[in-house]
Amino acid sequence: MFCYLTTCYTLTTMPPQKSHFEPPKQSQRRRREKAEETEDQLSKRSEDTERHAVSRASQSQEEADRRRRLDVQWTATARQSETQEEADRRRRLDVQWTATARQSETQEEADRRRSMHTQRTAGARHSETLEHDFILSLFIHVIYLSIYLSIYLSIYLSIYLSISHP
């Protein structure tokens, strides 16, 4: 009997429980709709997040590809620049070498001309000296001959006069 009374008491004091088959009330419908809207929003957010993540990944990949291309271009430009600098350096060295060779040839030619001029000048001086010496020698010989001739003539004249006017 106690059980019966407890059950009766419980049934009278507790609010009646709803059965699961009752039609939902408007507030429950709203909650359900809000829950569905929230689920839709969450799924949209999730999709947006995924799209954003994919977009970021795509942008990151594009950025990485762009950086790689720029690095390749920079490396190629640097190599070309190094090659160009090396070519310029070689050209400068060739120009310097050519200028040095020309200067050396010019210097050698100038030295050769100077040497020839010096030789000519020395030869001319020597020739002049020889000519002067020859003329001087001739002059001395003429003087000696004159002296010898005058001595000879004076001896001859003395002999002739001594023979012809005794």
TrEMBL record:
Transmembrane feature ranges: 134-163
Biased composition (Basic and acidic residues): 41-53
Annotated spans, Disordered: 14-125
Keywords: Membrane, Transmembrane, Transmembrane helix
Taxonomic superkingdom: Eukaryota
Name of the protein this chain belongs to: Uncharacterized protein
